[in-house]
Amino acid sequence: MMNLITNILGAVLCATAIIGFFNHDFMRMDLNPAHNAMLLLIGSITLYFGIQGTEFQARNMCKVLGVGFTVLGVMTLMTGPGIATAGGVEIPAGNVLKLIPGHLEYTTADGIRDFLIGVVGILAGFFPREQEISIDMKVQEVQRKATKAAAR
Predict the structure, then answer these.
(1) Within its chain, how far is the Cα of 94 from the centroid?
(2) Separation of alpha carbons 78 and 42, rounded Å
(3) What is the pTM of this model?
């Protein structure tokens, strides 16, 4: 299940980046080439852990993605109004975070997307399922037995 969630998050990021290469103001997001490349890289790494990784690697990817994107989303949504430029297109927005002016700018729509992806990542990464708790308990029991056997 964790791999599925990780795959969905990675696919959303990659799809947003690919669409952004053709439509720089898709859904009022500032999707210039630098932003698209960053989204594509992060989405690809996320997809890798979702497809090739174990459940625990996928969970850790969700944790990292969740914390990073939630912080970025909150930072964006706490900024003031402005105009973002995406591939020659000006996008007026209620919130504009200009990390690298002219190249890496986040609008309100970017902030909402990042915040939603971050919250899903946090929920998936930090709240274990019952099955995973039982696996962890079994691993700890085996480690205790191995420690006792080594002490003899």
Answers:
(1) 23
(2) 23
(3) 0.82
Q: Which tokens is 129 given?
A: 């399922």
d(CA 51, CA 30): 29
Give SS3 for 24. Answer: coil
Q: pLDDT 10s per residue in the chain (152 long)? A: 888 999 999 999 999 999 999 998 899 898 989 899 999 999 999 999 999 998 889 999 999 999 999 999 999 999 999 999 887 788 999 999 999 888 889 999 999 999 999 999 999 999 877 776 777 788 889 999 999 889 87
> Residue 41 corresponds to which amino acid?
L
Question: How many other C-beta atoms can be found within 10 angstroms of the C-beta atom of residue 152?
Answer: 4
The burial class, CB within 10 Å (0-12 / 13-18 / 19+), for 79 is middle
What are the residue ranges spanned by the domains of the chain?
2-151
- The neighbour count for residue 64, using CB atoms within 10 Å, is 15
Q: How far is CA 57 from CA 32, 52, 61, 117, 121, in A?
A: 31, 9, 6, 18, 13
Tell me how far apart the terminal alpha carbons of the chain are, to the nearest angstrom.
40
